[in-house]
DNA sequence: CAGTGGTCTAGACCACTTC
DNA sequence: AAGTGGTCTAGACCACTGT
């Protein structure tokens, strides 16, 4: 039942496709039925080569795919460890760039209202992702659809001291500020945390956006992180009627 | 400057790491500087093997990584086509399951307040993702931390007619309803759309959640889709103070 | 130290695309 | 028919992990 593998490759093995694919399917079946339990080590490449009467190359190709599918992880000198017994279905939302994360900031205009150098207290440190006592600069501003147009959001940006010298460029910078900071940073942004909440519109924002008291805000807090720490944190208050945050999460791969 | 490649492998090529990695870096540099323009075909495996005085295997490993990084696409019989000149950095948020998408619904209790069979008008059709005139069932309910505990959210669920027979099971079902429906569906959920917005708490929700007039809600609208259409749409109103939606978006691969 | 996966060679045949 | 990438062999040495 498992011996036409010694036949010529890619011809009529039993199922279809190349040999590594058939071996992969067999191994996946064993993972599912518990032959290789989670946490255990799978047979070595040499053992599998012998079992399937094939070269290490072919076995490696099958194992590479199992790794990509999240079934196993492999470590030099250690072996192939089973980390999942299911095809590791997972869902993801992807953006080609952080700009896409939020569709604003393109063709919009930013007006600085003021800025202030502050020392982080405990609460603020938690909000911006810094440490208590660090010196940051807070920049207040409003983003408009166009000069003299409709105000879109009230924004407070928190910039660590190392990048405070860029704050004067905020006023004229086209595009999101994390871009400005990232292009002046030696390390790239590798993570963005976002917290979305509903809140009453702060009074200052209310005034600047021309809203009536009691207005509701969709609040977006974002921390852009590099390996060195937070690059910039911004908090946007959008009028609730004007903005909703839409996302689509897709299943990736995997059957069942 | 490019001729210590004929030396022994993985020893001291020039930079660091294995040979395929060095070749990969060289090729990436050429992609960036326009030596291989977008849309063109890169040199063939054999040509690259000759240039770098290495085996096809090693070149293939480099090209495989370029493919994974989104630089090129490869077609048998055709060649290696340049599709991007940038490391195709992209960011993604992933969930291992849709449950993780939202951390609620585990160890919580749901109480049905009532349900109603409705025909979709134009507005409702847009909201739930159905067609005008279709018959759906709307189920109103409240989710509690525990029986008699704290109310967490007011929920309206919209279920298409095909699954209306499952509505009586909502009351006792542990876990999110899309799970219940999916396990009674022949096709799996492959997509979830989510819209997050801020809004005044609806009056009915206000009453059920024991809130004062003027309360603010974080509203989450989710449509779970299969290949056959929407499986279930739910709209949750959470008290603004009780919930914020947090997400973390990570850079995937690629340097610079 | 022995054994693992990681890298690599120098061949080979096949499936596919283009001419 | 010629040339491409896809698959595969049977070797080899290396880097890393455990003992």
From TrEMBL, chains A, B:
The keyword DNA-binding applies. GO terms for molecular function: DNA binding; DNA-binding transcription factor activity. It holds the Pfam family GntR. InterPro entries: Bact_HTH_transcr_reg, Chorismate_lyase_/UTRA_dom_sf, Tscrpt_reg_HTH_GntR, UTRA, WH-like_DNA-bd_sf, WH_DNA-bd_sf. The keyword Cell membrane does not apply. Residues 17-85 form the HTH gntR-type domain. Keywords: DNA-binding, Transcription, Transcription regulation. One of its GO terms (biological process) is negative regulation of DNA-templated transcription. This is GntR family transcriptional regulator. It comes from Pseudooceanicola spongiae.
């Amino acid at each position: 039942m498992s011996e036409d593998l010694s036949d010529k490759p890619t011809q009529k093995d039993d199922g279809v496709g190349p040999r590594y694919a058939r071996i992969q399917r067999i191994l996946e079946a064993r993972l599912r039925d518990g032959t290789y339990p989670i946490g255990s080590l799978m047979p070595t490449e040499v053992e599998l080569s012998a079992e399937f009467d094939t070269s290490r190359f072919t076995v490696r190709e099958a194992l590479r795919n199992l790794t990509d599918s999240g079934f196993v992880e492999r470590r030099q000198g250690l072996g192939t460890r089973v980390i999942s017994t299911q095809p590791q279905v997972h869902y993801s939302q992807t953006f080609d760039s952080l700009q896409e994360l939020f569709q604003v900031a393109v063709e919009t205009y930013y007006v600085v209202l003021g800025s202030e150098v502050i020392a982080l207290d405990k609460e603020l440190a938690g909000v911006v992702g810094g440490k208590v006592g660090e010196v940051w600069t807070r920049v207040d501003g409003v983003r408009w659809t166009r000069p003299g147009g409709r105000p879109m959001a009230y924004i407070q940006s928190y910039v660590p001291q190392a990048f405070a010298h860029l704050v004067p460029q905020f006023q004229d910078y086209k595009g999101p500020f994390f871009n400005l900071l990232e292009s002046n940073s030696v390390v790239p942004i590798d993570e963005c945390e976002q917290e979305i909440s509903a809140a009453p519109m702060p009074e200052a924002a209310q005034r600047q956006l021309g809203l009536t008291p009691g207005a509701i805000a969709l609040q977006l807090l974002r921390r852009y992180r590099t390996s060195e720490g937070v690059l910039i944190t911004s908090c946007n208050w959008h009028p609730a009627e004007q903005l909703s945050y839409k996302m689509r999460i897709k299943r990736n791969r995997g059957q069942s």
